[in-house]
Amino acid sequence: MCFPTWYSMEVSLHKPEIKLESLKEDIKDFLKTSGWEKKLQNAVYSELNVFPMPCHPAAPPEHIKEPLAYMRKAQGSWEKRILKSLNSMCTELNIPLAQKRPVNEQKELLNKWNEMGTDEPDLSLFRPVYAPKDFLEVLMNLRNPNYENGEQPSFKNHLGLIQVPLKVKDIPELKEDFSELGLNIGQLGIDDSAQVPPELFENEHIHVGQKVLAEQDSAAAQQYVRQGCPTALRADLWALILNISNQPEDILYYEQLKSNVIQHDLLVDSLIYKDVKLTASNDDYYFVFEDYLYQVLLCFSRDTSVLEHFAYSSATPPKSYIQGKLGMEEYAVFYPPNGVIPFHGFSMYVAPLCFLYHEPSKLYQIFREMYVRFFFRLHSISSHPSGIVSLCLLFETLLQTHLPQLFYHLREIGAQPLRISFKWMVRAFSGYLATDQLLLLWDRILGYNSLEILAVLAAAVFAFRAVNLMEVTSLAAAEAVLADLSTLKVMPLLQIFLFATVT
Amino acid sequence: MRSVPVPAGWGMPVRGCASAVLVLYGDVPVPVWEGDCRCPSQCCGEDAGLGIGADAVWIWGDAVVGLRSPVPQVQEIVFRNFYTAFLSVRVQRPGPSGSRRWVTCLRDLCLMPCPHTEEGSQDYFCLRRHQMLCDVDQVTAMRFILRQPSPVWLHFTIEDLQIFPPGQKSPQKDFPSWLSQLTPPEQPVSLHGELPDPEKVSTEVQQMWVLTEVIRARQAAARIGRFDVDGCYDVNLLSYT
User: Fold this and answer.
1) Which of A299, A427, B70, B157 qualifies as a cystine partner to B52, CB 3.0-4.6 A?
2) Nearest-CA neighbor of A297 among A353, A244, A247?
């Protein structure tokens, strides 16, 4: 983002009225009046949100990716498994991982770019590289070699599926962190319901939102959305928080990605097609956006700027060598170009955004920024507080502490709660909640810059259905009780669980 | 207070030091604290199975690592933690009457805020002289007292210990130090229409030039977006290494 900003400012400064002796002050004034100061502030704020705190200079890069050695190792083994799976698929099907598309195929694809959903390629031989439940098995087997992992049950063993001793917050700490969700603070999702007169909260909240947008202040927007976004303002507020402006150079970049999709055919494209067909196309809310999903995800696979997020992710992009030149660095490439291999359900990260953004390049940028800020943590092994391992442990700990009878009962009948809630959290609840409720939840993810709310909601859902769950006697019956979340109202559940449950 | 006899001559490699041989204490009971006697609370017995290998003395579930100080003046101590919860450092310095005495320069620095959990367990730490309780000049020996009250960990220690004297800085990130030196204190602009002070103007212009150069240098690493090699992106198998 920095390069176009700096260049535009340089161009603006080549003016005769700027004097040398007052250059510093003139620049400062110019930045204020032209609105560049705000843009710079937003850009800096954005970087602060995304990048980890600077740590000691002696810390090597892998420490910044993931401080715990055994987690790095586990992530490496998991990645190796994925690579093996992809390699064997490509060998079995005798399809290259990547190849240049013949010219006539390129023309064909360009013509039907806006309606790729009408295509019905034979995808029966393709299978997803992995599904969330495979990933859960790996997380369950995660162990710290320096921890007393005795077989005998003791206070050192966790009662849930996750056995690594990460620090997770308890309800008093969560109450403090999520203080804006308190009972005496207005929320969209609660205080905008039909029974509540809009003068009490909604009108004023919308008015404040409009002011925040007029000021174009990212930090203010992030604070504002903690109480929810009005539907009409949500698209602009999220774009402000994620610092997406859809400048001409961004549109050009998207067009460049599109031409990369046309030129090179990737095996990963078939995986994306299959995933969209299996998940979003079958969903009542999202099937209409099928074409958009292809336009976003195919371009996403070609976007090398996504590689930058590997500096602070525990994951490493898969590598290959073209033309069989193994080991020769000048022929080394990343595969796919963005280093991210999609799994079953990946397209559900994009689908809800289609309700907000209809212009493909803006939709693309929003999704990319959401991925490199949040979603990548949901499918990699790390000790980060918003990483999936911490979220699982947070969920299990909350449930054990506040619903011990329910937890014990479910354990006894072989229905460990995480087996049911894992898929919700990995997908950030996309496809499980009604869309308006999902967007209210994602408002808070952006507002608090953390995914911990997913674990809290998962526990709150169990708390809500506790009475029914106490009566089930098998995992299948427990799954049935929690199969349909589409009628749930997210904000009341969260409020009750955090602020109104007797502890 | 009980102590564990230790054979002399144990060593722990300490990088960055002039001498690699450390001297621990022989069959002499080693009290943890001198002067103000403070017994660390008992958390586990000697056969709890906790240890940091063959390199330390065990006293009441704490570990003490002693070393002959490689440098008389200590500027910075850098190390990587491995599941130590609290660190105290004592240094041996010449006392007022000429004899050497032990002084605590760091008391119970918390490395792991919640000792039962992973937070801070494998982090890098840096201790600078201004953070110490006492003067760390003329140091002849140092003692690192490691404490880990939680029984869930099998081992705890500190690793990659480096001690730097003044003048030898620990590795900095690639932030050019002259960049921070060029900022003069803010002064209000003169409103009297005189000729501007050439020194001031040249400093400010220099700052501006330096910033432009830094940005230009960064741009060289900006993404171009190419993922192929000379137009070719035919990939057959992924590499495992």
Assistant:
1) B157
2) A353
Beta bridge partners of B52: B54
H/E stretch holding B161:
strand B157-164
Instruction: Dig out the tokens for A416 from the structure.
Output: 């460990």
What tens digit of pLDDT does each residue of A50-74 get? Answer: 877 777 777 888 999 999 999 999 9
Containing domain of residue B136, as a range? 57-164
* Residues of chain A positioned with their CB less than 8 A from the CB of B241: 319
Tell me, yes or no, if A77 comes closer than 8 A to chain B by beta carbon: no
Separation of alpha carbons B136 and B48, rounded Å: 35
B126 in the Ramachandran plot: left (φ > 0), alpha (ψ -120 to 50) or beta?
beta
Tokens 């992009």, residue? A317
Beta-carbon separation of B170 and A90 below 8 A = no
Q: ipTM, 2 decimals? A: 0.85
Digit-coded pLDDT (tens) for A162-210: 999 999 999 999 999 999 999 988 898 888 888 888 888 889 999 999 9
- Closest residue in A to B228 (Cα) is A333
Amino acid identity at A213: L
In angstroms, the CA A279 to CA A100 distance is 28
Residues 370-399 of A with CB under 8 A from B: 383
Q: Does A147 touch chain B (CB under 8 A)?
A: yes
Residue B12 counted as domain residue: no
What beta strand segments (E) does A420-502 contain?
A: none
Q: Is any Cβ of chain B less than 8 angstroms from the Cβ of A22?
A: yes
Other residues' Cβ atoms within 10 Å of the Cβ of residue A278:
14
What one-character DSSP code corresponds to residue B135? -
Instruction: Mutate one of B83, B156, B172, B237 to test the A interface: name it (highest A CB count within 10 A).
Output: B237
Residues facing residue B79 across a β-bridge:
B125
Interface test with A, best of B117, B235, B239, B241 (most A CBs within 10 A): B235
Cβ under 8 Å to B: A residues 210-249? none
B40 occurs within a structural domain: no
Token pair, residue A30, equals 């110019």
Question: Tell me: the pLDDT tens digits for A2-52?
Answer: 444 555 556 555 655 556 667 777 777 877 777 788 888 888 888 888 877
Structural domains counted in chain B: 1
Residues in chain A: 503
The first and second tokens of residue A270, run together, are 């078939």
Alpha-carbon gap, residue B131 to A178, rounded angstroms: 34
DSSP A242: T
Q: Is A259 on the interface with B (CB under 8 A)?
A: no
Please answer yes or no on whether A146 and B83 come within 8 Å at the CB atom: yes
Whether B235 sits inside 8 A of A320 (CB atoms) is yes
Which candidate from B118, B153, B225 shows the least CB-CB separation from A304? B225
A80: region left, alpha or beta (phi > 0 left; psi from -120 to 50 alpha): alpha
In a domain, B147, yes or no: yes
Q: Do B239 and A321 touch (CB under 8 A)?
A: yes
Q: What CATH number did the domain enclosing B147 receive?
A: 2.60.120.260
Q: What is the pLDDT along chain B (241 residues), one digit of tens a residue?
A: 223 333 333 333 332 222 222 222 322 323 332 222 222 332 222 322 222 222 333 333 456 776 666 667 888 888 999 999 999 998 888 887 878 888 899 999 999 999 999 999 999 999 988 888 888 888 888 888 899 988 888 889 888 888 888 876 555 544 555 555 555 555 565 555 566 677 877 887 888 888 888 777 765 544 557 787 777 888 888 888 6
Q: Which of B209, B227, B240, B241 to mutate to test the interface with A (most CBs of A within 10 A)?
A: B227
